[in-house]
Amino acid sequence: MKCINCGAELDSDARFCINCGTKCTIPVPEPTFKPEPYIENEPEPTFEPIPESEPIPEPEPNIAEAPEPEPILEPEPNIAEVPEPEPILESEPNIAEVPESEPINGYIAEEPEPVEVVKLPKPSKLKIFACILIMIPAIIFLISFSCLLPIRLGLCGEAVRKSVSNIETKELLSSKLKDNQTLSEYLYENVQSSFIKNVGAEQDDVDKFVEESEIMTFLGDKTANYASYLIDGSITRDPAVGVSEIMEYLTDHDEAFESAFDYKMKAKDYREFEDSLNDMRLDDKLSMNYWSDQINYNLGTTHFFFSFITIGIFLAIATVFCIWIAIILGKHTASVFGFFAIILITSGVIVLLPSAAALFTYAFIMPKVTLAQLILTLARPVAFFGAATGGAEVLIGIIFALIKKFIKKRMLKKASA
């Protein structure tokens, strides 16, 4: 047998060429059986009956005599002689040789043009850093303005007079001091004189006198004097409530005293009552000069911090810082409004949140139980004006942010046109 590829002589049972390694085809031997020719009109054979005979036992096949087929050993291909295929190197596409697109139905497909990204001019990092440094003091001065203005408007003399007058007398008398002692009990125990002991006055009689004598109007006027001395500066002298003023108040309301205690006060009674007040050292405890000496600071100068001139100076300084930011950024108008928005929103949120929390606390959470809590209700106008000031700043800051966004859109349209 010969190899069909190289023509080398091979064994008859070889499957691979030992020379080139090509697979060989084994020739199929022709069958030795030849069918007998068909003869027409051949007489049908006659079969004679075969007599029955005993069955002949079939011989068992002799397995040992059957020769086992010899295994056909496939010759191993000579791999060393087979040349290895050379690696096919992928050649880079020659872009220049790519033919242009042929027209389809008379139209040539145009390649999409690259979209040009429009970038707006931005200020340099040095300018932005300088603006951030200027923005910090601008926020501080604006917060100072936003805190001083509500105090000036909410704690002036007239506002305090209205707040005190709105307090009900029963709330004041039932307010608790230290050791859960009410103000009514404190007055009954500490402001006693011989005439109260002689007439056998009870604590309810004291409460009745306080209600009928319109004491809240008296307290509103005196508290307004303190506020005017400390906040707006309309009163320059010490607004201390002395014993003489309290005795004058009692003299003016002797009818209410007689109605409550069923007793007509005499000159001796007034002197004893005045002595009891002097023992309490009310002239010192209610004097601003006394407390100025205690803290080593003249309380008469505090109104300078809350004057409209000082408040205007704080606002003017914050405005100057904003102008500096505008000068540094120059033509970058969008960035200028962006910094203005940050300054206003930051200051407004810092003032708005505590003011709104204070209003919510006054309205729903804090009960008017103690005298200190009752006095804190006088600061409700401050919280109201603080919330209004902070809310206005936040609103203006949002408007500036929207202006910045509008300017950016307009600049993008101009640049892309």
Give the SSE layout.
Blueprint: H1 125-154, H2 157-165, H3 169-174, H4 183-190, H5 194-199, H6 203-212, H7 215-232, H8 243-252, H9 254-261, H10 267-279, H11 282-285, H12 288-295, H13 308-329, H14 333-365, H15 371-376, H16 380-416
Helix pairs in contact: 1-13, 1-14, 1-16, 2-7, 6-9, 13-14, 14-16
Amount of helix: 40-55%
Quaternary status of these chains? single chain
Silhouette = elongated
Q: Ranges with pLDDT <50 over ≥5 residues?
A: 61-66, 77-82
Beta-strand fraction estimate: under 5%
| Main sheet properties | none
Strand tally is 0
From the N-terminal CA to the C-terminal CA, the straight-line distance is 85 Å
Secondary-structure class = mainly alpha
Instruction: Provide the succession of SSEs.
Output: HHHHHHHHHHHHHHHH
Mean pLDDT: 79
Question: How many helix segments?
Answer: 16
